[in-house]
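If your schedule permits, I should be very grateful for your opinion on a structural question. I have a record of one protein: its chain in single-letter code and its fold written as discrete structure tokens. Would you kindly read the sequence against the tokens and tell me how you understand this chain to fold? Thank you for your consideration; the sequence and its tokens are set out here.


***
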Amino acid sequence: MSVLVVGISHKTAPVALLDQLALDGDGVAKLLSDAAAGAHVAESTVVATCNRLEIYAVVDRFHGSVEELSRLLLDRADEPAEALLPHLYVHYDDGAVSHLFQVASGLDSMAVGEGQILGQTRDALRLGQEGGTVGPVLNSLFQQALRVGKRAHAETDIDRAAPSLVSAALEAAAETTPVAGARVLVLGAGSMASLAVAAVTRSGAVDVVIVNRTAESAERLAAEYAGRVAPLAALGEELAVADLVIACTGSADLMVTPEMLPRRPLTLVDLALPHDIDPAVGALPGVRLVNLALLGERLSASSAGQEVEGVRSIVAQEVSAYLTARRQASVTPTVVALRTMATGLVDAELERLDARLPELDPALRREVAQAMSRLADKLLHQPTVRVKELADEGGAVSYAAALAELFALDPDAVEAVTRPVVTDEASRGEGL
């Protein structure tokens, strides 16, 4: 079994195409269900953000699995499969591990180093756990990815060196509408909206109003930052007096259209995918639209320099350590089966000794039993140590298979031995 990733992101596709593939909560759950039903899939989960959609799966074969999972993404777009296919990417086995660690650490984000991806990675793990589609392999892999992401933020200044998507958007918006002294309208009350409200409040907005379909969520957010709440029915009225609009609802429908806007200067920021704001508003006189496409261009041109290199170094270390631990763990069932076989042989010989010498002195029998056990341990010590050393060099599966073949180990006995892939910390749920 190997880990496979099939996905699409801001690095491989234009925002307009990502817009077509954007999924709400029910859509993500359906995609996960479809992936888990694959003929070659043993475990699966989905990472879905505003700028990426990825299926992670544990599979028993490469080609058939790539075709199955790719089709699930292709079928969710309005474009012909031939148009979408070049924008998909595939990572397999070691490459899949490296990719997830880069994603969790923020290296693959539109805003390099942003911390929100950690929560989104955690959400993907929880989604698979709650749906019963994540097993020991993905659980261990995602738990380790979360630790890598935390380490990257703890040991470098990537948070301060690289802008968040919200801060980059506000910086772009400030070119036409400074936040200080502005009346700000925020559409949505989720995590992105919370970041936006916090940012504009710190920047000196004089009035922050939150509009959301669920009033309770909006009220909680408004209370935290001394903002106010307006009902969705009053959206037109709030647009008429706002200086800056920030939209991040995740709604399947457009929230703001050209007909709703006043004929005066206005800056709008659309951080949602699919779009909350009709792109046509950007053509209105005096109206400026900052969206993900614009931010992608700006952020790709920026760099956190030394801090990014520091995170890359951490990721490289962690990938190497994880793969080494996984290779070592792959030989453990064979080593355990080998020692179990040796113990069985010693026990069988002791039973023969008891049958032939029933009057043997108990103290002498114990000495004989201990001597036989020590001999078995010494004979097996070097092969087991060496196979673990060879596992560090790669090719662990072939060496383990050779060991099993040489000692005629029962395949069922080898497969019956299980062990966590990396550490026992994963079973404790650290990072959730």
